[in-house]
Specification:
With 432 residues, the chain is an alpha+beta fold. The chain contains 14 helices and eight strands. Strands 1, 2, 3, 4, 5 and 6 form a six-stranded mixed beta sheet that branches. Strands 7-8 form a two-stranded antiparallel ribbon.
Length: 432
């Protein structure tokens, strides 16, 4: 980690500090957030590696990725000089720390989390000289937030997947309590915004599937009628959005992902009408996710009141529907998590880490040597290094901004944001 952060700081200073005065370069802080994730489905090549006796071992079909996402570079000697990552969910600023053919499990997640903690504890300031003899001293600020729900459960020791990893209350009791006190230290692991969006989308789908029987646990005697109505719901969604949802993909779960969830939540009224469920609930959930995605400072108390109202509205409208832990987390613990970090929570989301799996699959398939596994994984790591190089990424950034779809900040979003962060709510684009 020390070596990668030093190289990152050096390249980032060259890319973004050309107009900073020498006094601002005396002391600089580089903020990053780290985390890890595993993925399966990496297909073994057809030919045999010369250094492997058995090419079909299952660990080689899984890839474990650990890395650091650049958040901010700021001058400590002159605070008005700073640079924030303009695309915090882009893999272009995700620096790899470790790539290995290892199968992710709870024991490994906890071991890797502790290893990152030890490396963070022993980080040292970095001093180097830029062009024209400018001496720069860089300090590092490192968070650990790039985790999905499974890894957070492993880190906090929560063995029940239907129990909130923050307050350790089971989903059966979410409707029976008014106060949810988080476990000490659990809020520092971030919101897991990408997976919260997917889980909210899945939850709304299943409310629609089961609203005729009004029973959350589907038993054998009602399964046929629920499946029949679920097919009708999917057909309505396809007619409204021209997108097929909830398709089973062998070895990967379903086709529901973050892009799909945002696509539907961007049009909450149409989504609610297609599902035939309460429009206010869907609109409120869409607003909350967009506020967190805005990458702007939030009026936490206002958002807390709105989240509490939405939480109660859910159980008023659908008392039989059992909320999943991720949806509970964003509504009950989201505002408290916001208070844990100096930057908006969108900067600490895990999108970039998840995006790297697609890049790594392409690299292993198209850009790596096939003569040994060591060379293949080395080529994968090296390509991830230069794809995330700050200087090259800044060149790519302008083209990304032109291609990126503009999402205006509407009044229902701006009322939860601190004023003075945008010029015109109708024109400013949300560059998440």
């Amino acid at each position: 980690m020390q070596q990668m952060l030093e190289k990152t700081a050096e390249r980032l200073c060259v890319a973004v500090t050309s107009d900073w005065p020498k006094t601002a370069m005396n002391s600089i802080e580089l903020s990053v957030t780290t985390g890890f994730d595993g993925a399966s489905g990496y297909v073994n090549p057809q030919q045999k590696f010369y250094d492997e006796e058995n090419d079909d071992r299952s660990p080689y079909q899984s890839l474990f990725v650990c890395g650091a996402l650049i958040i901010q570079l700021k001058s400590l000697s002159n605070p008005k000089y700073l640079w924030n990552n303009p695309t915090p969910q882009s893999y272009r600023f995700f620096r790899p720390l470790k790539i290995a053919h290892q199968k992710e499990d709870n024991e490994m997640a906890l071991e890797e989390y502790n290893r990152l903690g030890e490396e963070i504890k022993h980080l040292k300031p970095f001093k180097f000289t830029m062009g024209k003899g400018v001496t720069v001293m860089v300090e590092f600020s490192v968070s650990r937030t790039l985790f999905d729900g499974k890894n957070v459960n492993a880190i906090v020791g929560n063995k029940a997947t239907q129990r909130c990893p923050m307050c350790l209350i089971t989903s059966h009791n979410f409707n029976n309590q008014n106060v949810f006190i988080p476990k000490e230290g659990s809020l520092s692991h971030g919101l897991g915004l990408l997976h919260c969006e997917i889980k909210i989308f899945d939850h709304l789908l299943h409310i629609a599937y089961k609203q005729e029987v009004k029973v959350w646990d589907v038993t054998k005697n009602i399964k046929e009628s629920v499946d029949l109505y679920a097919g009708q719901v999917r057909d309505r969604l396809y007619n409204a959005f021209k997108i097929r949802v909830d398709q089973v993909i062998q070895g990967k779960g379903t086709s529901n992902n973050g892009n799909l969830a945002r696509k539907f939540l961007d049009r909450p009224k149409d989504f609610a009408n297609a599902l035939d469920i309460d429009e206010e609930l869907v609109c409120n959930l869409a607003t909350i996710t967009k506020v967190y995605r805005s990458a702007l400072e939030i009026e936490v108390e206002e958002l807390k009141k709105f989240s509490d109202f939405t939480y109660k509205l859910h159980y008023i409208k659908y008392p039989w529907a059992r909320m999943n832990p991720s949806m509970h987390k964003i509504l009950q613990h989201g505002p408290d998590i916001v208070r844990q970090f100096p930057m908006p929570v969108a900067f600490y989301a895990e999108d970039a880490l998840e995006s790297m799996h697609k890049i790594h699959r392409e690299t292993i398939r198209e850009h790596s040597r096939r003569n040994s596994r060591e060379n293949a994984i080395l080529d994968t790591f090296n390509r991830a290094v230069y794809l995330s190089d700050p200087i090259l990424s800044m060149v790519y950034l302008d083209r990304r901004r032109e291609m990126h779809k503009k999402r205006p900040l509407t009044n229902d979003i701006t009322r939860f944001l601190k004023p003075g962060q945008w010029t015109d709510p109708e024109d400013r684009s949300n560059e998440d």
